[in-house]
Design a protein that fits this description.
Elements: H1 3-11, H2 19-31, E1 38-39, H3 40-47, H4 51-63, E2 67-69, E3 75-78, H5 81-91, H6 94-110, E4 113-120, E5 123-130, E6 146-148, H7 153-160, H8 166-173, H9 189-202, E7 205-208, E8 215-223, E9 229-238, H10 239-245, H11 247-264
Antiparallel strand pairs: 1-3, 2-3, 4-5, 4-9, 5-6, 7-8, 8-9
Helix pairs in contact: 2-4, 3-4, 6-11, 7-9
Keywords: DNA-binding, Transcription, Transcription regulation
Protein name: IclR family transcriptional regulator
Domain IclR-ED: 81-267
Length: 269
């Protein structure tokens, strides 16, 4: 199929008159994965659009200040304007105002990296993060990051407290994504079922170097008034320090923080 035929096919399922909007948003999402810039030719391949269409859209985004040429010739990247837009979007979420004071206290008490996420479809999204006040470890996680459910502590929280049939559906639809990032990554659905049962019993999840060697993570659920888990809190630190400090010492303030936020969301008992 030619580029033109591919473009026409993709437009059939979209509202009339919005082709350029959808295409522009598609390019933004792709460029978000290339902080150092993406060549026009490769961007065209990823978007499945012809080069002239991509170039025209990029010029429009550039004129609005959202895209700029990258150092490499013929490449483009997003601008810092997205940081401002993203921060405004996050600040409009009441949950940040509710959770922030509790998360800041947890950060001071433990001295470790504190992460706060929400669930969106098949990902956990980091919406708040506090760097450690002691130690030198800085994790690669960043606000706005989409984290896979299968290999992150907070992701496993969402699977454990979600719909019973969801795990099987997730495993079937994400086969290409579920890969062994380290030797500890769980890639067997049977093993994941066992893991999730334990998480429900203990109301906590662990990332035992499943996403990054040398880094461990402890996560707990935040319940709302309907006993649903739409948010999760975690502490990240080096595996060596976790062994030194001990899980129990970190788990207690983590659970107390989650309980305090849950109460503010209307959960009683």
């Amino acid at each position: 199929m030619s580029d033109k035929e591919s473009d026409v096919t993709k437009e059939k399922d979209r509202p009339a008159g919005s082709q350029s909007l959808f295409r522009g948003l598609q390019l933004i999402e792709i460029l978000s994965n290339y902080p150092n810039g993406c060549p026009l030719a490769h961007l065209s391949e990823l978007a499945e659009l012809n080069k002239s269409t991509v170039h025209r859209l990029l010029q429009g985004l550039q004129s609005c200040g959202y895209v700029t040429p990258a150092p490499a010739a013929g490449s483009y990247r997003l601008t810092t304007k997205f940081i401002s837009v993203g921060q405004k979007a996050l600040s409009s979420l009441n949950i940040i105002h509710v959770a922030a004071p509790h998360l800041e206290t947890l950060n001071i008490v433990t001295g470790e990296t504190v992460n706060f996420s929400s669930r969106e479809d098949d990902h956990a999204i980091l919406i708040y993060k506090l760097e450690p006040t002691t130690g030198m470890l800085r994790t690669r996680a960043y606000i706005g990051q989409h984290m896979p459910l299968y290999c992150s502590a907070m992701g496993k929280i969402y699977m454990a407290f979600g719909h019973p049939e969801y795990v099987e559906q997730y495993w079937e639809s994400h086969q290409q994504e579920i890969q062994p990032l380290t030797r500890n990554t769980i890639t067997s659905v049977e093993q994941m079922y066992q893991e999730l049962e334990q998480i429900r019993e203990q109301k906590m999840a662990m990332d035992r170097e499943e996403n990054e060697l040398g880094v461990s993570c402890i996560a707990v659920p935040v319940f709302d008034i309907h006993h649903r888990v739409s948010y999760s809190i975690s502490i990240s630190l080096s595996t060596a320090k976790l062994r030194q400090v001990g899980e129990k010492k970190l788990l207690k303030p983590l659970q107390e923080t989650a309980a305090a936020i849950s109460r503010e969301l209307g959960l009683n008992g």
